[in-house]
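Cross-posting from the chemistry board since nobody answered there.

I work mostly on the small-molecule side, so proteins are not my area. We synthesized flavin-adenine dinucleotide and want a rough idea of how it might sit in this target. Sequence and SMILES are below. Is it possible to get a predicted 3D structure of the two together?
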Amino acid sequence: MLSTSPFWWEDSGKLELPAENALPAEVDVLVVGAGLTGLSAARTLAKAGKQVLVLDSGIPGSGASSRNGGMIGGGHRLSIKETISRYGLQTAVSVLRESHIDSNDFAKSLMAEEAIDCDYAESGRFRAFWRDAEYNPAARELERLQKLIPVEAEMLPASRQREEVATDVYKGGIVYRDHGGINPAKWVTGIQRAALRCGALVQGNTAVENLRREGNHWLVGSARGNIKSGSVLMATNGYTPSNFSHLVRRLIPVPSYLIATETLGAERVKRLFPNQRMIVETRDRHCYYRPSPDGTRVVFGGRTAMIKVPGAFAEHGLRGLLGGIFPELKDVAFTHSWSGITGMTFDFLPNVGRVGGVWHALGYSGSGNQMAPYLGHKAALQILGDPAGETAFTQTDFPTRWWHRGFPWFLPFADVVYRFKDGLNNLRRLA
Ligand SMILES: Cc1cc2nc3c(=O)[nH]c(=O)nc-3n(C[C@H](O)[C@H](O)[C@H](O)COP(=O)(O)OP(=O)(O)OC[C@H]3O[C@@H](n4cnc5c(N)ncnc54)[C@H](O)[C@@H]3O)c2cc1C
């Protein structure tokens, strides 16, 4: 039977709902959202001796953090030229360094320090081009990047692409060597355990409903009563509720859909992914896929729709995409089919900062396994007043648009536009 829970939640990836405790009347910091961001922030704050309460409206970790594709590695979607023209060379280089290197170092040291077993394998990532015309500009962009910061990556021409993935649909790509794969449920649960060990209190099934400033503290209204808090950190990303209007106006909650295939056998999967790489493609409604950590199945994701659609519709769309890439898999059974919500921003960059006295760290735009724990940690250091909390992601804009008042009414239109762009690019591929 097809499970609608993430494949990652099985066995030791199971999420953990901490025992219900009486809520304290007062804390130093209240973190809203127990995902990679909130739990990493809580760990840093608790380690510094602060009394921290993390509240989540569901089971901690059950947002995007345990639903994602399990690919870990650096980078962002803004071109170097655009990053420099928007923020100047110095901030742009910091954005690149933090997103490719510092966040990677942080994630690895967090895994090591807290002995988090999340099936991490530095298997690399292959970014596959959809069109021939992408190859030369991407090669120039990579050269520019490697002049600014040391990134372990190289171009792979279409003639050699079968070294990475057993399909001819792509037109070459880039291999990033220090990216890898994890079980994201184990990753977020590992960080939760670390936060608890450091003394943070984490409570699930307790939604934060409102915030009110009272003198020099916040009165946080939750489903289980009010709590006084010195500071509040919003770590709700794509799940940010509509009453936090300054944040929802800057976030676009885009759903993404995934499936796990039945067990295909290690030999067959190795034939499809000779180096066990994570694969992402450059199509507008892009697919991202990978071998399962035990190398016996394929976990396959894609933006089959930019709006919430019924599971059967998503599965049909994903089957078509999977079969287009690997025709031999077009009829395999799926054992799991699930979705999650990504928090996109208008500049495709996450942001850390404070608006109206409320802290936030969010907007990972589909790439948070490495960035979210890192920026949660940075936000915590900023709350502590520690200069080490400085990050370029506080210097960037976190823009909104006048027409985004909070409800993402425009997503159905964006869905049509992206379908059209994909159709156009398919035609261009034939030209
Ligand atoms: C399908 C999918 C695939 C992805 N694939 C990848 C990938 O392969 N690699 C990668 O790097 N990134 C990937 N991402 C992105 C990555 O998962 C996110 O960037 C990251 O998990 C964000 O973590 P977070 O803690 O900020 O948010 P989340 O994990 O989404 O946590 C937010 C939490 O806030 C809680 N919350 C919301 N409102 C309230 C409230 N009022 N009160 C209390 N709690 C509240 C929610 O319940 C939720 O648990 C993917 C995302 C999705 C959805």
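Reply from a structural biologist on the board:
Welcome over. Reading the output above for you: The mean pLDDT is 94. The chain is about 30% helix and 25% strand. Happy to explain the token format if needed.
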